[in-house]
UniProtKB/TrEMBL annotation, chain B:
It comes from the Bacteria. Keywords: Cell membrane, Membrane, Sugar transport, Transmembrane, Transmembrane helix, Transport. Coiled coil: none annotated. PROSITE patterns: ABC_TM1 (PS50928). Residues 73-288 form the ABC transmembrane type-1 domain. Belongs to the binding-protein-dependent transport system permease family. The chain crosses the membrane at residues 21-43, 76-98, 110-130, 159-184, 205-230, 269-289. Its main location: membrane. This is Permease component of ABC-type sugar transporter. It holds the Pfam family BPD_transp_1.
Length: 311, 297, 412
């Protein structure tokens, strides 16, 4: 790559930064009527959004007798971590009484390769669609977008057949491929929009310098697309980690992901529903995507700004 | 590649074509192939295993004579309109509020977005619990002394679908807000200045200037919301299992139940073909207009 | 870099996938027994199988047969079969057998003289397709039971009813005492099962067979079945305040005296047992709702997919034998609350309700169950109808009966 292109990419990095700052009307005094209204609304709405999480946490720290008597919103009188221990390592499904712990590593083993593969494929798709359009490319893209609307349930049977024919049914590789296929439509859309919105001169300059398909992708596009990769990673980690249907249909019990165990714990009612254990299990299962969100919050909006806005 | 050799059309952009093979395979084999396969077998009387034993349109006649399917369609329409309207409106309003150069923007944004990290199964369970008539909101309000308070959407056939929509909105609006916020951030500051100079009120600026400029964001958002609506399944299963009775059934659940519970693949395929057909009628022309003829090298 | 991504991802999957060959006699068994009593029962099967030197790998899938069956079927048709799997015997696995995916057990059956020991004979018949035996029945489950909470009736100040009619008459008193007269959970199969029980009890054995075996739609639309719908209407009114989904939560309402009673199969007994309740003292059971004492011979059976691995195939045979072993049969069925499939086992440990069931079985008052008579498709349509019926107080009886007759007319 030439200096020419480097210079261009340096100037154009400003273009990413404006996406991060607020652009609305300028604020006025701190305690103006407008500010009270503004923050008042935000706080009320935020409370509404936090309420379920609060109830989950509070419930998971109560004992069953207290749940039966009390009010779901009241804080626990006596904090107990027993439901958490039970959810993680003791809750039973059939004969297996090792709670969620069994599924955790399975989920990791499913999520990591699936996220990597699906994003690798989708980013190249988006790049090809944005910068190297060949005849018919748009048709495939339209098919992909329509594919985003097909309920997964409908595709279960054809995919069982496809996986059986290529001999990957029941294997982790098969599941990784399935996740890559179903992540493709939305991810490709985001990547395509992102790459389309990059200044065209960058691409032109690299072409003039003789860089090819992969060269431009690796040396220009990739380094500049951190935000959209963050978005893609967040979407995929959430989607794949939370998936239940594919995990249960295309794997076998020793590789069941955590969500399957969650479903099993929640649906294996032993007499009374143990709401505290259910809630603890629920929070534990959601923890990984939640952490990803809390860490990458700001990058997420910046990436979305770049991937969805210009198109 | 101005002076490079170009033997034929086929080899033009060869690398791009090679790189697109996974996409092409997915589009053709899985989406088109799988769909064609499904449509083909919807004309058969396949039960547990797919068999090519054609029965014409029988499965479709039966489908449209089934009360549960009709209820499912009605529910999907109600759910769809609610999700679409409310997630767009709430998402946009929240984004507009956050875009006022406020403090703690990160905190608020994270709070609104976190439900999206939870799966529909989890969302369904939490809201089933919050809306439980004995333990949840109704029970709590009653125990505070308002004994006639009635809020029991999950066990009331006529409003159960709204109970599900509440949960869906809680889960999904955060993402929509982020998309909208991103869109607002893409608007040039000068536009605001110009509007202010002209003395246009803020709501008018949003409605007539900003929103039209955010068209691409709305398109992406629509794709995400609409594809979510058609696919709604887990949430219903976790929250109500379609109950009470069949009052909160949705089409995707009908498809799944008849394919696998009832072991009547033909019926399930017919239902999914109807779903596909309605999606296609709306999506394909639009997708072509939107994504088809973009001019770029 | 992209290639690196790809190869890395691929290498990762391959490496992770390579968990090493399992010990040759591990056998994965899938089932949907996950409630308290069920899990205790299945542990007995696993214990017996492990004692043979093999290893039972438990593949429980929670959420009742409706959730589990599609997964099992996908795995069998997808070419990744488990070692053995539960189905309700009857017609659920019919097509899998016809497609040649399941293992023929005739040899094992001949060796174990199954035709002599299994009773009633109809059980083995529903495992037999084209003269070959494809499944091992493990228990007899009958739906025809009314479980009543003695404490609830005491609280309401009325005697514990002796039959369905007395029960309906006692409903207002129960309601006045703040008790839900009848618990019917929200899952669709519960409403549909309750109706079938009413059909056999209120309508009688002949009516039941005419509707489900002969599929006589005219009869199903006639006055005798109308009587049954009238009874179902009573049930619907009595059940209207049950705010639970799962069957065992509904049973729990009876156990704790929050509900007066429940129409549920004998598997509910396992829940009473886990809760430490005694039949006769804490709860009362009325087979055939006290009107028509019959027992339906539904139940669970294990099917064995065709496997290539010779060691596993051998282990399948061992499991099949173990399941019918008299000792296993007793241990399993006592925990499960169901009746054993062998007539020659000692069941002194059985409680009152099981003994009532055994007596009826000995009298030969058995009927086939809907799993054996109807396809899953017809069953599902029936479930949809009755779950709607029970949830919608304003659905008229005539309308419901007409739709029922339509389902019977097209049933197969």
């Amino acid at each position: 790559m030439s200096d020419h292109a480097v210079a261009l990419s340096a100037t154009s990095s400003n273009w990413r930064d404006d996406a991060a700052g607020p652009s609305g009307p300028k604020p006025r005094h701190m305690f103006s009527r407008r500010n009270i209204f503004l923050y008042g609304t935000l706080v009320v709405v935020a409370l509404y959004y936090l309420l379920p999480l609060y109830v989950m946490v509070v419930t998971s720290l109560k004992g069953m007798p207290e749940i039966r008597l009390g009010n779901i919103f009241s804080p626990p009188l006596e904090i107990t971590f027993e439901p958490w221990v039970k959810a993680w390592s003791q809750a039973c499904t059939g004969l297996n009484c090792d709670g969620l712990s069994r599924g955790f590593w399975n989920s990791v083993r499913i999520t990591v390769p699936s996220v990597i593969l699906s994003i690798a494929i989708a980013s190249v798709n988006g790049y090809a669609l944005a910068n190297w359009r060949f005849k018919g490319a748009d048709t495939f893209f339209v098919i992909l977008i329509v594919g985003a609307f097909i309920p997964y349930q409908v595709m279960i049977y054809p995919i069982v057949i496809i996986l059986r024919e290529i001999g990957l049914y029941g294997s982790l590789t098969g599941l990784v491929i399935v996740h890559s296929i179903f992540g493709m439509p939305i991810l490709t859309l985001l990547f395509r929009n992102y790459f389309t919105s990059m200044p065209e001169e960058l691409f032109r300059a690299a072409r003039v310098d003789g860089a090819g398909f992969w060269g431009i992708y690796l040396r220009i596009m990739l380094p500049m697309s951190l935000p959209i990769f963050v978005v893609a990673i967040i979407l995929q980690v959430t989607g794949i980690w939370n998936d239940f249907l594919f995990g249960v249909v295309y794997t076998r019990p020793d590789t069941y992901p955590m969500t399957v165990q969650l479903n099993n714990i929640v649906n294996s009612v032993q007499g009374v529903k143990e709401y505290n254990v259910n809630m603890a299990a629920t929070i534990l299962t959601g923890l990984v995507p939640l952490i990803v969100y809390f860490i990458s919050g700001k990058l997420f909006v910046r990436g979305i700004a770049a991937g969805a806005v210009k198109g | 590649m101005s002076k490079s050799e170009r033997p034929s059309q086929l080899f033009r952009n060869l690398n791009a074509k090679v790189a697109s093979i996974p996409m092409i395979l997915t589009a053709m084999v899985v989406f088109v192939g799988g769909t064609a396969w499904t449509v083909l077998y919807s004309f058969t009387n396949s039960k547990l295993l797919p068999r090519l034993n054609f029965v014409g349109l029988d499965q479709y006649y039966r489908l449209w004579a089934t009360p549960r399917w009709l209820i499912s369609i009605e529910n999907l329409l109600i759910y769809g309109v609610i999700s679409l309207v409310f997630s767009l409106v709430i998402g946009f309003l929240l984004a507009a509020l956050l875009d006022q150069k406020i403090r703690f923007e990160d905190t608020f944004r994270t709070i609104f977005l976190y439900p999206f990290a939870l799966s529909f199964i989890v969302t369904g369970l939490v809201w089933q619990w919050l809306l439980n008539p004995d333990f949840g909101v109704q029970g709590v309000v009653r125990s505070l002394g308002w004994t006639s308070f009635d809020f029991n959407p999950l066990y009331n056939s006529s409003i159960v679908i709204y109970g599900i929509s509440i949960a869906a909105l809680w889960q999904g609006t955060g993402l929509i807000m982020c998309l909208m916020l991103a869109g607002l951030r893409g608007i040039d500051e000068d536009i605001w200045k110009a509007a202010r100079v002209d003395g246009i009120p803020m709501w008018k600026t949003y409605l007539f200037i900003i929103i039209p400029m955010m068209r691409p964001v709305f398109i992406t958002t629509l794709v995400i919301i609409a594809s979510g609506i058609v696919k709604v399944y887990d949430l219903v299963v976790a929250q109500t299992s379609g109950g009470p009775g069949i009052a909160s059934e949705v089409p995707a659940k009908y498809v799944y139940d008849y394919m696998f519970f009832a072991q009547n693949l033909g019926q399930g395929f017919a239902a999914s073909t109807m779903m596909l057909l309605s999606v296609m009628i709306v999506i394909v022309p639009w997708a072509y207009l939107e994504f088809g003829g973009r001019k770029r090298v | 870099m992209r290639y690196k991504f790809l190869t890395a991802a691929f290498a990762a999957t391959v490496a992770l996938n390579f968990a090493g060959p399992a010990a040759a006699t591990d056998l994965e068994v899938t089932h949907w027994w996950t409630s308290g009593g069920e899990a205790a029962a299945v542990a007995e099967l696993a214990k017996a199988f492990d004692a043979t030197g093999n290893h039972w790998i438990d593949g429980a899938i929670a959420g009742s047969g409706g959730t589990a069956r599609p997964i099992m079927i996908s795995r069998i048709t997808g070419g990744d079969p488990m070692g053995a799997t539960q189905f309700n015997h009857g017609r659920q696995a019919e097509e899998l057998v016809q497609a040649g995916l399941m293992r023929d057990l005739t040899d094992v059956a001949t060796k174990g003289k199954w035709t002599e020991v299994v009773r009633p004979k109809s059980l083995l018949d529903s495992c037999t397709i084209d003269g070959k035996i494809y499944c091992v029945p493990v228990n007899i489950h009958s739906w025809q039971w009314l479980w009543l909470s003695n404490a609830a009736f005491e609280k309401a100040g009325v005697p514990v009813p002796k039959n369905w009619n007395e029960y309906v008459a006692a409903a207002p008193a129960l309601e006045k005492a703040g008790i839900v007269p009848l618990a019917v959970g929200g899952q669709a199969w519960q409403a549909s099962g309750a109706f079938d029980v009413l059909l056999a009890a209120v309508g009688g054995t002949d009516a039941f067979l005419k509707v489900y075996k002969d599929k006589d739609a005219k009869f199903a639309a006639g006055p005798e079945v109308a009587k049954v719908f009238k009874a179902a209407d009573d049930a619907r009114k009595m059940a209207k305040n049950t705010n639970v989904q799962d069957w065992n939560q509904a049973t729990n309402m009876v156990i704790t005296g929050k509900a007066g009673g429940q129409i549920m199969g004998d598997w509910a007994q396992g829940e009473f047992q886990v809760a430490g309740k005694t039949a006769g003292k804490d709860y009362t059971c009325l087979p055939g709702l006290g009107l028509n004492e019959v027992i339906a011979t539904g139940g669970d059976a294990f099917y064995f997919p065709l496997l290539k691995d010779a060691d596993k195939a051998k282990a399948q045979e061992v499991l099949a034998e173990t399941l019918l072993d008299p000792k296993t049969q007793v241990a399993f069925n006592l925990k499960k609350g169901s009746l054993p499939v062998r007539g020659d086992v000692d069941l002194n440990a059985a409680n009152d309700c099981m003994k009532k069931g055994l007596a009826i079985l000995a009298k030969g008052a058995v009927i086939p169950w809907t799993d054996q008579l109807l396809s899953q498709d017809s069953q599902k349509q029936k479930e949809d109808l009755f779950s709607e019926f029970f949830a919608k107080p304003d659905m008229s009886l005539e309308d419901a009966q007409k739709r029922f007759a339509d389902i019977i007319a097209s049933a197969d």
